[in-house]
């Protein structure tokens, strides 16, 4: 039994030495073709991806379950009934109610200051 343990130990150390000897050559090969991840991350698209209006057929407001209207100027999905707008980020509608914006209506904003 001791002989088996010793032979395993010797064979394991030989494998480790072979692997350790190959490691510097592998490192030099990968260093030549290495590309910084930053170079890809720093590229910014000036134009956000467009929103696909066909999604309006299946998307509804998560609160009222009513259809939404797409406003291309503000890039938002608007629920007229509740007066909230869901933002569209990178072409993906953010339908989380906590992230929705309340719309200002003419009835809520006074035209003249109260005295």
Task: Please tell me about this protein's structure.
The chain is an alpha+beta fold and 115 residues long. It has 2 helices and 5 strands. Strands 1, 2, 3, 4 and 5 form a 5-stranded antiparallel β-sheet that branches. A hairpin with a 4-residue loop joins β1 and β2. The relative contact order is 0.09. The mean pLDDT is 75.
Which secondary structure elements does this structure contain, and how are they paired or packed?
Blueprint: H1 2-32, H2 37-41, E1 69-71, E2 76-79, E3 84-89, E4 92-93, E5 101-102
Antiparallel strand pairs: 1-2, 2-3, 3-4, 3-5
Notable traits:
elongated; 5 strands; alpha+beta; 115 residues
The secondary-structure class comes to: alpha+beta
Mean pLDDT: 75
Principal-axes geometry comes out as elongated
Largest sheet: 5 strands, antiparallel
Structure summary:
The protein has two helices and five strands; from the N terminus they run H-H-E-E-E-E-E. By secondary structure, the protein is of the alpha+beta class.
């Amino acid at each position: 039994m001791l002989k088996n343990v010793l032979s395993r130990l010797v064979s394991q150390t030989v494998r480790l030495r072979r692997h350790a000897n190959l490691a510097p050559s592998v490192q030099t090969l990968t260093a030549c073709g290495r590309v910084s991840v930053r170079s890809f991350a720093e590229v910014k698209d000036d134009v956000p991806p467009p929103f696909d209006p066909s999604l309006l057929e299946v998307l509804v407001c998560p609160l009222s379950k009513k259809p939404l209207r797409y406003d291309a100027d503000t890039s938002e999905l608007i629920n007229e009934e509740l007066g909230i707008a869901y933002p569209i980020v990178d072409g993906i509608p953010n339908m989380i109610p906590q992230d929705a914006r309340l719309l200002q209506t003419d009835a809520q904003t006074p035209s003249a200051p109260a005295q």
